[in-house]
Every structure is written in structure tokens, then in C-alpha cells.
Design brief:
Radius of gyration: 17 Å
Number of strands: 9
Helix content: 10-25%
Low-confidence stretches: none
CATH class: Alpha Beta
Order of helices and strands: EEHHEEHHEHEEEE
Structural class: alpha+beta
Oligomer: single chain
Strand content: 5-15%
Largest sheet: 4 strands, antiparallel
Shape: globular
Number of domains: 1
Length: 243
């Protein structure tokens, strides 16, 4: 049998988690990111702030790497997809939603554990913590910690390259590098209104991405930012586990 990945999972205790952004903060956020062309209507998806009871769960310390995903492909005799990427094994894998779901299901079967995609609220709490910080490391953006468009790398970087990019619960790279799939379909927050844009054109539901990537500016790296996937989005997977 092929070696299977054995991801390090972090325990997150049950909590009344602060989710989202207060309405009164949206204008300031739009002004702070005006150089990126951020419009306030994009930010209304993350308002208002509310509290949500989360039961205890586990979140992966790291996103799934290319090396880990390669083992999944080898188990299914599908190695061609990663030919030429051996030198980037510790970079995050870039996956479609279907690939991410299939990987989590496979690893769950192989290990007998309850691996799955996190909900967007589990993801946000693991990144923002009990104080609802905008970034995994704290309240303010700090240049050079997360691999976003500002770094100029124009590609993924090795997972955990900057140890400062670690959240309160120990999860690394929750800002930048690749966005991460959640299992949640977009819907407005309690007390908010639905935002119609390119992601739900024609009334289609879409999965929420979190965390930002090397292709996007610092605003998308905020823990509260929520949106859908474009065709060329750089998206990966951070596993969750039901306890």
C-alpha cells in the first residue's frame, strides 16, 4: 500500500465565535484598500458581525501540499497531472472543489477518520480567533508575511516559509499563497442582505473561498473576506476533522 499523508490536526475548542465585520467598518476598509480598487459593495458580504456557536473540531496545521496530493493521484494511477512538479512538493496543491472533496473523502477512508472541508465559519474562527482579528497574526497588515500580490512572487511559495504567518490556534499560511475551499455555499449573514455579483450570476450558488492568494492583494487575505472562485483562481485545501 502506498504511504498516505498523516496531517497534523489542531484542536479547536467549542466557542461562541465572532464572525464577519461590523457594518460601521466597511467604509474604512474600502478606503484602506482603495489602491487595490476595492469597492464597498464587495465587502457587504462579510457584514454584519455576529456570534455563532461552533462545536469543537480540528483544523489542519497546513494546507494540503503537492507532495501529499501526489500520493492520492498515485493511489488512483493518475500521476500525469503532477509531472514536472517534483521540485515544488512542499508548495500547496491547487485543486478544484471536486478534487478537494475527493481528496478529503479518500484520506478519511484510508485512515478511518472524519476528514472533510471546513465550513467557512470554522475556517474564519481558526484564522481570526476569539478576538476576530483581520489577519492570523493580529490586527494590522504587515508586509512580507503573507504571499500576496504585494510580494511580487507571482506564484506559490513553500508552505510555512514565513513562521510569522501563523494563527492563534497554530494554523500556518491562512493568509496568502493559495485561497482555500470551504464547504459553505454563499448566503447573507443574519441581518445582512444578499449581494448579487459575477459569482452568482443567473442565480447560481457558489462555494466560499477564504484566505487570499499570491494572485490577489492584501484585502483578500483578511480572515473575514468571503467570495467565490474565478476560472483562474489559485485555490487549495485545508482539511477539517469532525471530533
Amino acid at each position: 500500500m502506498l504511504d498516505r499523508p498523516d496531517p497534523l490536526m489542531l484542536d479547536v475548542a467549542a466557542a461562541d465565535a465572532p464572525i464577519g465585520t461590523p457594518f460601521g467598518e466597511l467604509e474604512r476598509l474600502a478606503a484602506d484598500h482603495a489602491d487595490l480598487g476595492v469597492r464597498i459593495e464587495w465587502l457587504r458580504k462579510e457584514a454584519p458581525r455576529f456570534h455563532l456557536r461552533l462545536e469543537a473540531y480540528r483544523i489542519a496545521e497546513r494546507p494540503v501540499s503537492r507532495a501529499e496530493y501526489r500520493r492520492f493521484l498515485q493511489a488512483h494511477d493518475e500521476t500525469a497531472a503532477l509531472v514536472g512538479e517534483d521540485d515544488a512538493g512542499e508548495h500547496p496543491a491547487r485543486l478544484s472543489f471536486e478534487e478537494a472533496e475527493a481528496y478529503a473523502a479518500w484520506l478519511g477512508r484510508e485512515t478511518g477518520r472524519n476528514f472533510r472541508l471546513p465550513t467557512e465559519f470554522e475556517w474564519e474562527y481558526a484564522a481570526a480567533g476569539p478576538h476576530g482579528w483581520p489577519f492570523p497574526w493580529g490586527r494590522r497588515w504587515r508586509e512580507g508575511i503573507a504571499n500576496t500580490r504585494e510580494t511580487g512572487h507571482n506564484g506559490t511559495r513553500p508552505i510555512g516559509e514565513n513562521p510569522s504567518n501563523r494563527s492563534w490556534c497554530g494554523a500556518i499560511d491562512m493568509a496568502g499563497n493559495v485561497e482555500e475551499w470551504t464547504s459553505s455555499l454563499y448566503q447573507p449573514y443574519p441581518g445582512g442582505t444578499a449581494v448579487n455579483d459575477a459569482f452568482n450570476a443567473g442565480g447560481l450558488a457558489y462555494r466560499i473561498l477564504r484566505g487570499g492568494s499570491f494572485m490577489q492583494g492584501r484585502d483578500c487575505a483578511r480572515a473575514q473576506r468571503r467570495h467565490g472562485a474565478f476560472e483562474d483562481s489559485a485555490v487549495g485545501l485545508r482539511l477539517a476533522e469532525t471530533i
